Amino acid sequence: MNIIFLALPAAGKGTQSEKVCKNYHLQHISTGDLLREAASKNDSLSMEIKDKMQKGLLIDDSIITNLVSREIKGREGFVFDGFPRNLSQAKLFDEMLKENNQKIDYVIYLTIDEEVAKQRILSRFVCPVCQSVYNIKDESDKICSKCNSQLVKREDDNIEVFNKRLEVYKTDTAPIIDYYKEQGILFEVDSSLAPDLVFDQIKKIIGEL
Ligand code: AMP
User: Fold this and answer.
1) Model pTM?
2) How far is CA 35 from CA 47, 179, 203, in A?
């Protein structure tokens, strides 16, 4: 089974991807995580990736499809978190899956109010060690409850970059909603609820194991 999560930034793609992977024994592919890892290396590509991510822009399709095709080669059963991000990636992805005798089973479209997403971005902290994500609104200790590391803010989690990412989402990513709707594999889920309630809706779509 292959599942795509599609949503505005901070709608909960990462959180729900993890829940689905654990419950349905699937592998998590987050292009954002793959890019953050690539950006941390000290090579010619890392500077280009870092620069675009800090500006909230999309990374070139060829870089993304290379990263994804390397990950899926010879393996099966994925949750794609943050990929595809535009129509050309969606079409290249269809070809890639066909070559691997695979298909997309569900596209879960997490809906959320823009203002709610913005507030989540401002209170989002991540663990740089185990990648856990937290929403912290007060001055409580910013320590990861899973591995005790000091939590940090992602460099692109600020209002300026959020606004740019929103703009990019509307122009580049939103058109793939119709692309998958026409194929009859798009399912909308209200992502403004608590994570467990969002996951309950997803389980109804995919079915219990
Ligand atoms: P995310 O972790 O999904 O919020 O992505 C963080 C940033 O990584 C985005 O704002 C983009 O700059 C870049 N990115 C992630 N996935 C893609 C993709 N599929 N295509 C292009 N850029 C991407």
Assistant:
1) 0.92
2) 11, 25, 29
Which H helix or E strand runs over 164? helix 159-168
19 lines ligand 1 (CB under 6 A): no
Residue located via tokens 């740089």: 128
Cβ(36) – ligand 1 distance below 6 Å: no
CA of 29 to the centre of ligand 1 (A): 12
Q: Whose CA is nearest to atom 12 of ligand 1?
A: 53
Beta strand pairing call for 27-30 and 106-111: unpaired
Query: Cis omega before residue 84 (within 30°)?
Result: yes
The DSSP output letter for 151 is: P
Residues ≥6 apart with Cβ < 8 Å to 109: 6, 7, 177, 180, 186, 187, 188, 189
Q: How far is C-alpha 3 from the geometric centre of its chain's CA atoms?
A: 12
Nearest CA to ligand 1 atom 10: 56
CB contact at 8 A, 31 and 68: yes
Asked if residue 35 has its Cβ within 6 Å of ligand 1, the reply is yes
Cβ 9 under 6 angstroms from ligand 1: yes
Check residue 67 and give its pLDDT: 95
On whether the CB atoms of residues 20 and 189 are closer than 8 A, the answer is no
**Mean pLDDT of successive 10-residue stretches along the chain, which has 209 residues:** 96 95 97 94 91 96 95 93 98 94 96 94 93 85 94 93 96 97 98 96 91
| Bridge partner residues of 3 (DSSP) | 79, 106
